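Task card 7
Instruction: Convert sequence to structure tokens.
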Amino acid sequence: MEQWESKFIKNMTLRYVFALSVLALIAVVADHVLQDNIQTEQNRGAVINSGGRLRMLSQRIALLSLELTHTQPPESRNRVREELLLAVAHMEVSLNGLIHGDVVLHLPGNPSAELRELYFGAPVSLLAETQKFVAAAQALCRAPENELHTQNLHLQYIQLKASSDFLERLDELVKVYQREGEVGIARLQKLERLVMVITVFVLFLMALLIFRPMVKRIHAHFVERSQAEVEREKLIADLRTALANVKTLSGLIPICSGCKKIRDDHGYWNHLEAYLERHSNADFTHGFCPECQRMFEES
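Output:
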């Protein structure tokens, strides 16, 4: 029995270790996949912000360009020129990060096919338009003082682009990034549900293939132990009865030399027949032995 119990405990331990290992593996894999997708969606949020920033910077550049040509004091014009150059630099950084990636801005780069078509597609790519827009702003900043007026060609180009289809294409860029972000969020939600379904399914399989057989074996073991206990108690009772019978009919039995009565364990004297009937399964019949028969006939 001890060997069987040791084997059973070892088997249960292995099953528990296997079940817990599977659950741990699922948890680790699910966490890795979810964290990777969450990081992707966080980067996508930065991408949407940078796309919206391009649109904002285009309007800021147009406003600063107009302010540059209308500001008269040299010190004020220099301040506006510095702000304009800073806005142009930010626009270049954002555009380059959206296309090629930027660790600092958390931009992954590698745009989708739809975005690449928008950036590089014919007849006029958004990248080329943005580069021309930036170049015009840089040229305006380098223009001498006598050319900083409302008729400046660079200023006119900037104002035209800031209010034409260039602005609409920047809006379309932001919309595409937002749409892809919504698709990514929906995919992440589906992935979370899939992980939940897989986890529940694995738990069901464990309950069906591991814990249910284990419960059956434990139940069968306890039934066997219970039956063995009943049999053991019955055997003990039989042994006690046998020992009582043996104790009653063995040893020194006091008997009277005259009347032949027997003294029991309680000190009472009993007729031989009554004593033997109480302490054995024997029944008695009455008759005469040959010697008593002759004595009876002679009398």
